[in-house]
Amino acid sequence: MAESEFDIIRYYFARHRASRDDVLVGIGDDAALLQAPAGRVLAVCLDTLVAGVHFPPETSAAAIGHKALAVNLSDLAAMGAEPAWAMLALTVPENDAAWLAAFSDAFFTLADQYAVQLVGGDTTRGPLAVTVQAHGFVPPEKALRRQGARPGERIYVTGTLGDAGLALRMNDPGDNWLRKRLDFPEPRIEAGLVLRDYASAAIDVSDGLLADLGHLLESGRLGASLWIDALPRSAAFLGAMQVLDPERRGQFHELPLGAGDDYELCFTVAEQHCGEMEKRLDGIPGGCRWIGVVEADQGIRCYRDDGAPYRPAVSGYQHFSSTP
Amino acid sequence: MAESEFDIIRYYFARHRASRDDVLVGIGDDAALLQAPAGRVLAVCLDTLVAGVHFPPETSAAAIGHKALAVNLSDLAAMGAEPAWAMLALTVPENDAAWLAAFSDAFFTLADQYAVQLVGGDTTRGPLAVTVQAHGFVPPEKALRRQGARPGERIYVTGTLGDAGLALRMNDPGDNWLRKRLDFPEPRIEAGLVLRDYASAAIDVSDGLLADLGHLLESGRLGASLWIDALPRSAAFLGAMQVLDPERRGQFHELPLGAGDDYELCFTVAEQHCGEMEKRLDGIPGGCRWIGVVEADQGIRCYRDDGAPYRPAVSGYQHFSSTP
Fold this sequence. Notes:
The structure is a homodimer of 324-residue chains.
Chain A: H1 3-14, E1 23-25, E2 32-34, E3 41-50, H2 61-78, E4 82-92, H3 97-113, E5 117-125, E6 129-138, E7 154-157, H4 163-169, H5 176-183, H6 189-195, E8 199-205, H7 209-218, E9 223-227, H8 235-242, H9 246-252, H10 255-258, E10 264-269, H11 271-281, E11 289-295, E12 299-303, E13 309-310
Parallel strand pairs in A: 4-5, 9-12
Antiparallel strand pairs in A: 1-2, 3-6, 4-6, 7-10, 7-11, 8-10, 9-11, 12-13
Helix pairs in contact in A: 2-3, 2-6, 4-5
């Protein structure tokens, strides 16, 4: 029976034995049994990556394995949660041992980095798709929400923006670092844990800065001024842009505003906490950059560094409408 | 941008507002925040249904919506857990309002029946597939495991076996009840909660009785005698079999042993508890039937009601080898 092949795959994932004390029963029963810690609430999220929709078909197995977990850890980071357990639903067209080895190695390498244990899942035959579900812990009063920002607070973002978007649009970005930003995003877990103590609101930037900052502001019916020349861009991004012809440069220069796939954190901090927060994020992967200010007027108003208003061509997803 | 359609779908699922006190933040943030109850451990499971693999392409949206949740609740039932929260990863090829209405209505009807709240998920575009993740609660000392059976204990099964398998193999089973058993399995939650007090081991029958009983026995390196004429078969199953020609009847008579998709519970109970257990399961949907005895010798030995040994043609999945 063809399904027996898939039992082999299941054993492939079961062989990994990162063991946490709070996992009473892991893979191999009808359900896992997990002990949630006292004094914490569970943060739970789930994301699906579909071949040809969320990643180009030629994406490596390692990139898919890493990214499927990373995008979920990024959601936990945006809640200020400490990751703990993951579940994996893997649908693959065939039993390809080399592909599975590369996929699972990358998945477990990232899982081990944050002491995340795979506690269950399902492997099925079908068109390539990966759904990961992740659990994290956070003290209830410290959880970061999308809502909570107040007018006058500063808007920050971790890391750099637009790298993944540029890598996706250039067949050969000429710099492997950009491609790595697309394929192997680093969830900002450490930053999220620090931000528990400072941020009034947070979201992860997966759909593009304008769209995701829009979600954060919408929840409080707020707006913002955004300094687009202050958006953090990597040296690799700037270097790749410089060698482009002017037309493509024109197409790509808004990628930091709307490309998505950044998996950075966007968050708001009251002015009196900003100094201490910046000090604590200094030296943590990604760091942070002050990019704007929360305002009572709805909409996101973009400005150049000479103070001139700037109307972006991109506005993120349609249900977010900027009103410059 | 085409993705905006999918935001509409997301709102479709977010509109359902079954609210549990232990859901601090539900759909709409980067992650849900959930309060696990004191004195309980979490039972967590996840299952994927892929179109054309786990259900025929012509399966109704309502059946898919019900079954995707039901198969997970069945896993929780097999642990003796009380269902609480679910997450949904839905991949659909297009935004078909009628399909989504029927799918979500059926999903939420079953969820409401067990006070399960949808706390998050992801809707993506791609080949039709549904992954559901479910959380339940169980007192740690009462959780039902696959392991724990002892020689001499009785083997039981809830409900009837083979109905779904027969419906799947007959284009028109001539009885809608059989089709309903395939499309709308009833998770044996109530039975699982009762069995917390009696069963030494339990598993849900999803791959076929021989395969799943095999898993239960394997975990303790045990075996069993099984009385195949005692297997519970529904009146609808027996009626449909009677009007078949002898060749098909010959093909189908082992469906209760190996067809799968039953979503009944198979469990073991020490003899001294059987009377009380049977009384408590009497009147609970599915009831139970005594079908065999756990033995120290590995392998499953099947017998007819005249005591003659019977060697099944089916043996479930290959990694389970029966040794009659």
